[in-house]
Amino acid sequence: IGDRHLSNFMVDLATGGVVGIDFGHNFGTATQFLPIPELIPFRLTPQIVNLFSPLSESGQLRSCMVHVMRALRQSPHLLLNTMEVFVKEPSLDWKGNAQKLARSQRSESATNPSSESWYPRDKIMSAKRKLDGYNPAHVMK
Are 61 and 120 in contact (CB under 8 A)? Predict the structure, then answer.
């Protein structure tokens, strides 16, 4: 997940809980539409480090991220089945991205560029490859 800055997080001031709220560059879009593809799975910016002050980023944040990734890799169907919603109801961003790609590629690489479902299915496969531990350079293909 790229595009991480403080405007993309909501913080519960009572509990200190943090929720990401902007996922514009998720599930592989940062490898397709940014001038320089972003291959890292998560960008730990100075703003995020400061958000977790006085704790260290190697403490609670790292531990939570490792546990979440482990849980998702053990039960990938939880995320992948949830993402299936986007096949029937693609987000406006994904519809726009699909149209952009179909116009720019005009090739057979997309299973059916006239259908809106090929792009969400491609994003689901990208997420599956990430959960399977593929090298980020291979996830882009």
Answer: no
